[in-house]
Amino acid sequence: MKNNNIENIDKLNKFPIVAILITGAFLAILNQTLLATAIPHIMHDLNLTENTAQWLTTIFMLVNGIMIPITAFLIETFTTRRLFLTAMITFAVGTLICAIAPTFMLLMIGRIIQAAGAGIMMPLMMTIFLLIFPIEKRGTAMGTVGLVIGFAPALGPVISGWLVEHYPWRALFYLVLPLSVINIVIAYFVMKNVTKRTFPKVDILSIILSTLGFGGLLYGFSSAGSYGWTSIAVVSSLVIGTITLTGFILRQFKLKQPILEFRIFKNKIFTLTTIIGMIAFIGLIASETILPIYMQNMAGFSALESGLMILPGALLMGFMSPINGRIFDKVGARYLLIIGLTLLTVTSFLYTRLTEETTLSYLTVVFAIRMLGISMIMMPATTAGLNQLPTRLIPHGSAMTNTMRQVAASVGTAILVTIMTASALRTGEKALPMEMIHGVNVSFYVATVLSLVALILSFFIKGTSPSKDSKRISA
């Protein structure tokens, strides 16, 4: 298909396209955390060690993170319809392989194929939303994206926790597979071409450098918690990642058609909102990682209770994201970000007072308020930043935003978990719960400082109301 097949956006029936995109992205993101509580069952069934089994989660995040940076190139090379169908079919094939995999190696291959499709989904969805909706309605549209980002990862452990108690772990993939197939069939009939193809030159060296750079950093930071910061695997992957990523960035400035356009960081608002979004994502992922560890290993709660603690906050975030989007369309991002980051900072501080006796209701209520704050940050910050970019750079902006969040989640979680372990008064089998909980409290002190930094930055966000002419970077 050629560019003249691009649909007239004003005449598009947007609802089916939005529904298909949200469903596809929801299934893709759900799979990041779907195996969280199923790992012990897979270990037992396939006779795996914990470190080996964790690769099922790590490899998904790793491949996902590697695919995201090159989606801007893919969006500019293929039609919207073809790219979406290819991503969803790839994801479905990976899901099928996971469901029937008799061995760990085949299960890993399935997860890699799943992640290759999933990595394309979020940047593609954000790009399409920004193209089919006028600037004054983008907040509402992107609010639905916030629903997916916040709700899907939090729902994963709850669904898997319930399913693996009643059914074999393969049921997780058999649940996702038919939903993926239905999505593909409907998309075949309703998906339209809305992105403009510019046919950028394939720069193989950039793709190799991007893969090694982002892959090295993501693997290094995500493995630091398991192997320690001084292990050869962690140090070497961080060094290789840093060197190759530097080479990738420098190369992009020399290319006429870069794989990923780093010049967008010349725009002050885009840069500030990206940093704020990264810190908010660290707050989201870190609390969803650290709190279950604290609850199950130190405070005597069950896995199901830790999953249920997250659920009300996830539901609240899902409910509030579209509402916050409408507020954004009226007043812009500044006030939403200030209020949201204040809530994130306060709730981070409230989690620095945890003890063995902290109640489930306290943890749940504070987490719900925290998710309310995050819902006021994530998509308003993203939309405010992407609104600064000319249309031709939106694929690069959405790919960059998602890449930075993936890196932030990996780096932030690794650092906070390391702080939690290193600052515990005592570790090992003889350690008392309160001695280990001290480390959890210290990690949330660090999270509080990070949130406070983002709160200060939010006061510099100005001119993001859709009713005003925002200063955009030059095309």
From TrEMBL:
Domain Major facilitator superfamily (MFS) profile: 17-466
One Pfam match: MFS_1
GO molecular function, one term: transmembrane transporter activity
Membrane-spanning parts: 12-35, 55-75, 82-106, 112-133, 145-165, 171-190, 202-221, 227-250, 270-295, 301-323, 335-354, 360-386, 407-425, 437-461
Domain of life, per lineage: Bacteria
Gene3D superfamilies for this protein: MFS general substrate transporter like domains, Multidrug resistance protein D
InterPro entries assigned: EmrB-like, MFS, MFS_dom, MFS_trans_sf
Subcellular location: Cell membrane
Record membrane topology: Multi-pass membrane protein
GO cellular component terms given for this protein: plasma membrane
Keyword vocabulary terms for this entry: Cell membrane, Membrane, Transmembrane, Transmembrane helix, Transport
Entry protein name: DHA2 family efflux MFS transporter permease subunit
